[in-house]
Amino acid sequence: MWKILIPKKIAYGENAAKEFDYPENALIITTTESKIYEKWIEYMGIKNYHVYDKVTPDPAIETIETIKNEFDGKNISCYIGLGGGSSLDVCKYLSKMTGIPKILIPTTFGTGAEMTTYAVVSFDHKETTAG
Fold first, then answer.
1. Is residue 8 domain-resident?
2. What digits encode the pLDDT tens for the residues 93-129?
3. How is 104-126 classified by DSSP, letter by letter?
4. HSE of 74 in the Cβ direction (CA atoms, 13 Å)?
């Protein structure tokens, strides 16, 4: 048997990111620099949040473990992956690992990372796909 797992909810269209109801005390995970993600956060109206902006392309499991440890005990309500495939993949993996819900917001075009449950993560500097 084959299964295709997709997100429970998909919001799209003009102003979808702006009109979405974001929970407080979220952890925003991104690859972009502050002058870019701050504009996105302001546009989306997210309040009372944390940011982890050190995700690199082809993220390693060590990055995910670092984020998990750094924000453990801070009662994170959800993870928000903001950016391209790497930040979305880290967000998906963390959500699966911790049971904390996720919101994926692609700001680039092409990967489709927001539409699957799969994440590409490097273990011992070798890429692995986890779902």
1. no
2. 999 999 999 999 888 766 666 666 667 787 776 555 5
3. EEE-SSS--GGG-S-EEEEETTE
4. 17
- Residues in Cβ contact with 74 at an 8 Å cutoff, skipping those fewer than 6 apart: 25, 27, 50
The H or E element containing residue 28 is strand 26-30
Determine contact, residues 82/30, Cβ cutoff 8 Å. yes
The tokens describing 71, both together, are 């924000």
Residue 115 resides in a domain: yes
* More confident position, 11 or 4: 11
Coil, strand, or helix at residue 42?
helix
pLDDT at 10 over 90: no
Which letter does DSSP use for residue 22 in this model? P
Q: What is the CATH number of the domain that holds 85?
A: 3.40.50.1970
For residue 32, the 8-state DSSP code is S
Within a 10 A sphere around the Cβ of 88, how many other Cβ atoms? 32
Task: Domain of residue 34: give its range.
Answer: 24-130
The answer for 99, left when phi > 0, alpha when psi is -120 to 50, beta otherwise, is: left
For 64, the 3-state DSSP assignment is helix
Is 68 a member of any domain?
yes
